Amino acid sequence: MTPVTIPSGYQQVMPYLIVKGAAEFITFMHHVFDAEERMRHMRDEKTIMHAEVTIGECVIMLADATDAFEPRTGGFFIYVADTDATYAKAINAAAIAISPIEDMPYGRSGGVVDPFGNTWWITSPIA
Asked: Is-above-0.90 flag for pTM?
């Protein structure tokens, strides 16, 4: 396989989500997961053409859905310091519980679907 040069600050594989309400989705990720917005390019005054946020060292790319680009959501497994607190933040930010928090062999984990249709498996590693 030919080696690839990846730009600094990016991973070789990154999710690219297309959602209805991209600006609100960025706010949700900031509030729940401490995501930091690092880029936003607008198609017009209301529509995000391309944006990027980071959660820890991971980049998530996203855009607003349009007639040409229908919503494409994702599923995420995310390690956090405190599953219970982060899960509660997600629920308070209008996420819907799909799996209660439980102690699992890989950590304390619970699942939610955010208001934009993405699934998040929120997990604290075993100490």
From this structure: yes
Q: Are 122 and 79 in contact (CB under 8 A)?
A: no
pLDDT average, residue stretch 51-72 = 97
CA 34, CA 37: separation in Å to the nearest integer? 10
Residue with tokens 């208001």: 115
Joined tokens for residue 55: 């959660």
Type of residue numbered 68: A
72 DSSP 8-state letter: B
Give the ranges where the chain is alpha helix by DSSP (H): 22-33, 83-92
pLDDT digits (tens, 9 = 90+) for 3-29: 899 999 999 999 999 999 999 999 999
Structure tokens at 46: 């209301």
Please state the domain extents for the chain: 16-125
Architecture of 16-125 per CATH?
Roll (3.10)
3-class DSSP state of 47: coil
